Amino acid sequence: MKKKTAGIHHITAIVGHPQENIDFYAGVLGLRLVKKTVNFDDPGTYHFYFGDKEGKPGTLITFFPWPDAYQGKIGNGQVGVTSYVIPEGSMSFWQERLDKFRIPFTMTERFGESLLVFQDPHGLNIELVERKEGELNQWEFGHVTSDVAIKGFGGAVLYSSFPEKTSELLENIFGLQRIGREGDFIRFQSPSEIGNVVDVKITSSGRGIMGVGTVHHIALRANDDNDQLEWKTSLESNGYRVTPVQDRKYFHSIYFREHGEILFEIATDPPGFAIDESLDALGKELKLPERYEKYRERLENKLMPVEVRNLDE
Known about the structure:
By secondary structure, this protein is an alpha+beta fold.
């Protein structure tokens, strides 16, 4: 039987000022900051994780905030749009909330679904879509209550340099079901209830340039370490160059760049974010991998002070 991924584990993007990033994703969108750590490959830079109450796979957006970095350009070889699922009947709440914070938005439609389209402060493209599927997010913050809170990812729109190659990867290797084509998009879907839809844009968006306001990579889910190794073997047997397994503390990762130039990761669901903090304390303290603990004082002095602020007060 052909292997199938459950869908999106997380999406990681590059942004600018770290406090602006927290204010938007926690203060405006109401997501929980579930982990405040550093980029394991560049420890002088924060790595923030936002998600639902527990930080479950399929709800996680993560960021490398570089306040002095150059602005990127969204285009081919990147995730062009990140889509979030909101509960049925909550669209008017989110329209009013964006108005409250003076965030411009438009409405559009794709595959029969109404989409609320806007950008974050650093230029990332975001959509909100109502769907019945997916558990309600029990995290409540400010005026964002669980009956309207973002459940997790609706999916992503991939801007591929070679859409037919990317589509082949999604369907024939990752086992996503091809739902159909509408206009400039081909839709694929996984069996999960959250983070389960991937659209591939088949027309060119021009070459992307990595920088602030762009997605760095998209991660798909592996059940555990054994499942991840099976994915690694499968990808390599199909000609993809895959990295060795990387220990990211909260999950294990492998990476590869597919033929459409998009950087993919496959991340394990376990062990999760409660490995070094209790559920009630997620995101409260700066957490470092063991190899950087001896540099804690130096890193804390270098990293910009940030806090989660209730912008509704």
